[in-house]
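Practice set, problem 2.
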Amino acid sequence: MSFPSPFYRWRPHPWHGLDVGPDPPTLVYAYIEITPFDPVKYELDKVTGYLHVDRPQRTSALPPTLYGFVPRTYCGRRVGALMPHATKGDGDPLDICVLSERPINRSDVILKARVVGGLPMLDDGEADDKIIAVLNNDYLWSDVKEISELPGVLVERLRHYFETYKLVPGKTSHVSIDATYNRDHAERVIRAAMEDYQEEYGS
């Protein structure tokens, strides 16, 4: 029996086995770990490539967008160098938040995302950027090219979520988020994360 090409005989690892995207750093693939309907934080198991339950969300806050990462990216020294006061990248794939008009209530899916900007999140001294993108060919967001074109309240919700989702009563937060950056800088961060990946894991 012959199979079409390309064909994955086995399920590819979402981080290492998928492409960065059709036209990176502008149009990338996003592997979705969490949806706006998840009161549980799911995270990719880096060994098996399957989603595992990281923890129930401690607060009532839910992610305001789809949330996942860009395959074959790594937040290492180059990503860290792009963020003031960061000692290094956080050692994870690059996070991405994707806006979609229609509700997508399933995680463990792949989608095409057009990059529009990002949030420079510093977590305990490590760069933990949150790229902001829109679902490619989305009927509502299709004309958005820059983060400045998004409703301000949506960006505020993203900022609030990431500033508070790790909060523990009685403990000090080590998370800070500076002003949003535009698409040009977001694409620089993606290129840096792609180069960090090549250095860490090879082609």
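Problem 2, part (b): a different protein.
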Amino acid sequence: MRVLVVEDEPRVLSFLDRGLSEAAFAVDSACRGDEALELALVHPYDAIVLDLMLPGKTGLEVVREFRDAGRSTPILILTARDQLEDRVRGLDSGADDYLVKPFAFAELLARLRCLLRRGTAIASAIQIADLHIDLLTRRVSRAGNRIDLTPKEYALLEFLARHRGQVVTRTMIAEHVWDMNFDSFTNVIDVYIRYLRRKVDQDYENKLIHTRRGVGYVLSEDP
């Protein structure tokens, strides 16, 4: 899942970038409100984590203009402003959630996952044939056997699983699993698909990861 983090404090931004990356998110970042709005309107983010006190445009201005443009991406406000009127103003402007600094990173992750589950049929886990993916703990197993994945391998598998039975193109994968620095002319996606096949399919007769030549990939229990 791809997230935009907007924060003008370098240490906080670095902390969020590192923590979310370790949690298998692809992270883009911005430290100005105007830059954040431009990125949010161009890239298909799955969620946005947004500070309120920003140069260029305030967080509230970003939220209002983003919503006025008809965009529905979930927005989590992360700010030191802890007064009731600040919370009300933030939520009324179009934000989906509001978390006050200082915060526990585990709570931030939980709130993000909650936002990402809204409006979908996916609860806390995905089951495809004998493949089980726990979205909360990021534990993956097949036929009861644990599969150890790197954060990027997990992110790719989760994206395929959220679109089970659907062919996803390399462009779709690049937009949601990698950040804006990804070089689309490399074969990195194909390499990671091979990594996943080795761990998920190699030891099992029923293959789940399929290639649609010239189009993309599909995760399905049907050949």
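Answer key, part (b): The first strand starts at residue 2 and ends at 6. The chain has two domains: 2-117, 125-219.
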